[in-house]
Amino acid sequence: MVAEALTLQDYKTPEESWWCPGCGDFGVLAALQKALLDLQIKPEEIALVAGIGCSGKIGNYVNSYNIHVTHGRTMPAALGLKLANRELTVIAAGGDGDGYAIGMGHFMHALRRNADITYIVMDNQIYGLTKGQTSPTSAMGFETKSTPSGNKEHNVRPLQLAIAGGATYVAQGFSSNQRQLVDLIKGAIRHKGFSLVNTQSPCVTFNKINTYAWWKQKLVDVTTLDGYDPHDRVTAMKLLAENDEAVTGLVYEDTVSESFDQMLPGFREQGIVNQDWTVPDGEFQKILAGYR
Ligand SMILES: Cc1ncc(C[n+]2csc(CCOP(=O)(O)OP(=O)(O)O)c2C)c(N)n1
Ligand code: SF4
Q1: Protein residue closest via CA to atom 8 of ligand 2
Q2: How far is CA 189 from CA 39, 96, 266, in A?
Q3: Could you tell me if 176 and 27 are in contact, meaning their C-beta atoms sit under 8 angstroms apart?
Q4: Is 228 exposed, middle or buried (0-12, 13-18, 19+ CB in 10 A)?
Q5: Model-level pTM?
Q6: Cβ–ligand 1 contact at 81 (below 6 Å)
Q7: Spatial separation of the C-alpha atoms in residues 5 and 69, rounded to whole Å
Q8: What's the pLDDT at 3?
Q9: Angle at the Cα of 91 (from 86 to 95), degrees rounded to 5?
Q10: How far apart are the CA of 205 and the centre of ligand 2, in A?
Q11: Which of 61, 130, 156 to probe ligand 1 with, by most ligand atoms within 8 A of CB?
Q12: Hey, which of 15, 40, 151, 219 would disulfide with 142, CB 3.0 to 4.6 Å?
């Protein structure tokens, strides 16, 4: 019997959207659902780990397994899931505050492990859910509720950090460029190893500087650059430094390095959940006796 093709509806939940009209996160949600549809991944084979923030609501709208974790903790949960069940497509999603502030420590260690997960960051240069404070990707000088006389800190550069840290697929999307974002997410899911898809996803309510129009003017698409080779680490770093990370497309991909889960002894063929954990008769009593 030929299995029926999944439709877009299969990746949607009945939950009503809670985002402000015009929020960039709508574009990210639609691109993720379209990418999953194009790849025909069954909802029961997808685990979406979402953080806390407006961005974290994305998990409520995608029909898949969904864990809504504590603020900044998408990485350890996603890593654990992948190691336990390598057959799952594990996707983590959250905001720039979630991932690059409170979650920064976890982010760095997830990078160096190169586990096979896709991390989508909905980057709006602000804390949306808590109503407009600076985030780690806010530019120096940015005036917000928490920085009324201008932000005095340098901003985090997530793409350069990701490459330096060991990610093997590093891309940037823009929520109003659907076609490109779908392709970047599909590439990230197909890629075996840690994939970051940082996405410029404007907050129309609290960030009046980094708007759709502002990004449209600023972003350089790597595919328009003559002979750009995403497989060259040094070229990728140079591109990001020269353009202050205002680029879109696949910036870097390493197709050679093995992912963490591929390298772990004993886990090559099967994930933990699929191994035979039956304890032979009488063995359990013996194990228990060892603790008495
Ligand atoms: C441990 C903890 N610290 C702080 C908060 C408060 N808090 C909730 S969301 C958030 C920031 C949200 O910003 P971001 O991650 O950029 O997501 P956005 O809402 O912009 O999508 C903060 C600080 C929290 N919920 N938990
Ligand atoms: S506050 Fe900003 S990030 Fe949150 S839903 Fe509204 S527009 Fe989106």
Answers
A1: 23
A2: 9, 20, 24
A3: yes
A4: middle
A5: 0.95
A6: no
A7: 31
A8: 78
A9: 150
A10: 6
A11: 130
A12: 151
